Amino acid sequence: MNKLFVSISVEFKKLFHSKIPLITLLTFMLIPFIGGFFMFVLKHPDFAESLGFISTKAQIMGSADWSSYLSLLAQAISIGGLIIFGFIISWIFGREYSDRTIKDLLALPLSRSTIVLAKFLTAFIWCLILSLFVLLVGLLVGMMLDLPQGSKEIVTQGIIVFGLCATLTVLLSTPVAFVASIGRGYLSPLGFMIFTLILAQIVAVAGYGAYFPWSIPALASGAAGNKAYIVEEISLIILLFTSAFGLLSTMLWWRLADQC
User: Which residues contact 181 (CB under 8 A, 6 or more apart)?
Assistant: First the structure.
């Protein structure tokens, strides 16, 4: 267990010596402010009329209230998180191959499973910190806009939906690590993320999103127009199986494949 903590500490040092935390933090910072801008447009019709096309887009978001705003944040973390979370985990795993440090890493007196698990935990922790940051900034922006219908029940339900969507999206990042390990770099996982994101939209429109893991977080957020946030049991099983497959397959690849 001590070796695992040391490995996580090392992974965090490598992460924060890069520009990845800053890039992902600034990128996610756009979510609450863009959402707040749309709410501001909806809340001020006179200003919206002068914007023309932008005001039309804002109408799609619903009304200017806490329920619509928190739903927008949940949708953004569900869709945008597939790319940002995937980018984080692809860097954590892919950089070892791109920087040619994989041989040095595997020469350490640590089991390969410990190394992989430390990388996953580092990625998960940072992704959840980013999600919490988005939520806190989002709540602050919502209070600054003085959005209506901000009852305790509505805000609490919105936070629960956001937390659920963020957690499910983070869990879906494990297959990205497997692709990064097989592809020995960044390009393969980036292509995989774009492919799954596009396919998730197509499958959801076709009506089978509940059975495609990368569509499930967006459906849970209400992106399909369904305000219910309860994930069906079969959907949760499929998503957890996909996450477990990514985790275990990555561990097996690092243990059994030739990394030279």
Answer: 93, 97, 250, 253, 254, 257
Q: What is the pLDDT of residues 236-257, one digit of tens each?
A: 999 999 999 999 999 999 888 7
pLDDT at 67 over 60: yes
Asked if 59 and 166 touch (Cβ cutoff 8 Å), the reply is no
pLDDT at 62: 62
Give me the count of residues in the chain.
260
Contact 201/216 with Cβ under 8 angstroms? Answer: no
Rounded CA gap, 260 and 253, in Å? 13
What are the structure tokens assigned to 35, written together? 């959402």
- Residue 178 CA to residue 247 CA, distance in Å, equals 8
Cβ proximity of 183 and 189 under 8 Å? yes
d(Cα 182, Cα 259) in Å, to the nearest integer?
10
